[in-house]
Amino acid sequence: MEGTPGLKLNPYELTRRGQKWLIIIIVLFHIVGLIGFAIPALQPFFMKLVPWHILLMLIVILYSHRPVEGKFIAFALLIFSSGIILEWIGVHKNWVFGNYTYGNTLGLKLDAIPLIIGVNWFLLVYSTGVLMQRARIRSLLFRVITGAVILVLLDLLIEPVAQHYDYWQWANNIIPLKNYAGWFVVSAALLFLFELFKFKRQGIVAPVLLTVQFVFFAVMWLIS
Q1: 11: pLDDT strictly greater than 60
Q2: Which residues, at least 6 apart from 170, have a Cβ–Cβ distance to it below 8 Å?
Q3: I need a labelling partner for 86 at 20 to 30 A (CA). Which of 4, 64, 97, 124 fits?
Q4: Tens digit of each residue's pLDDT (9 = 90 or more) over 142-159
Q5: Straight-line distance from the first to the last Cα atom of the chain, in angstroms, rounded to the nearest whole number
Q6: What distances in angstroms separate CA 171 from CA 28, 98, 119, 163, 176, one per listed residue?
Q7: 36-88 pLDDT, tens per residue?
Q8: Secondary structure E strands in the chain
Q9: What is the mean pLDDT of the chain?
Q10: What is the helix, strand, coil percentage profile of the chain, to 5?
Q11: Burial call 192-208: b when 16+ CB within 10 Å, e when fewer
Q12: The pTM is what?
């Protein structure tokens, strides 16, 4: 079993082989996505696949978590619902992130908010939370702040790609600084919730997903 020297492994942690196959799925489907978006003729088809891709990553992360328990499901539902509520406030009141609206790429909407965005918030918060859990950072506050900074850096890569492929659109095509401040505050609050649940130490699948997201959106930004 792999792990950081000096840290006790979770006895329920997924086996190396199990983690390996989940990581292969993560990397493979992101590579396929990059190829699809890099070919103009395929872009409309791959834009329709975006919600399904996010759902696949959800299945991967849900399967990777050990042990499967009620509090994990409760956490996932809490982050999902919090994400939807915050996005609703953001879109309809412009209070959280700024003045923006969602396009059609993220799929089915409820009152102008794509339901998949709640899933995406869960994936990002959980993956970052596990990364901080595995890091040698003793301070809870520092873990939360570091994780929030990481998610803001990821959003810096996501924003230009999101506008280009109609994930969402900003008023006057200007991304306000308020968006990044909002991302930091929301991310910190949700990561604090992750800490409160005190999950057993997890494997590397979720941190790999977060890392691949950085690479994916960096490449997407370059080819867009």
Answers
A1: no
A2: 98, 99, 100, 163, 176, 179
A3: 64
A4: 999 999 999 999 999 999
A5: 40
A6: 35, 9, 25, 11, 9
A7: 999 999 999 999 999 999 999 999 999 999 998 999 999 999 999 999 999 99
A8: 100-102, 109-110, 113-114, 168-170
A9: 93
A10: 70, 5, 25
A11: bebbeeebbbbbbbbbb
A12: 0.92
Q: Number of helices (H) and strands (E) in the chain: give both, helices first.
A: 7, 4
Q: Is the bond into 51 cis (omega within 30 degrees of 0)? A: no
One-letter amino acid identity for 26? I
Query: Which residues pair with residue 100 across a beta bridge?
Result: 170
Whose tokens are 């999902």? That residue is: 80
Residue 111 is given by DSSP the state T
Q: Report the SS3 class of residue 100.
A: strand
Mean pLDDT of 157-166: 96
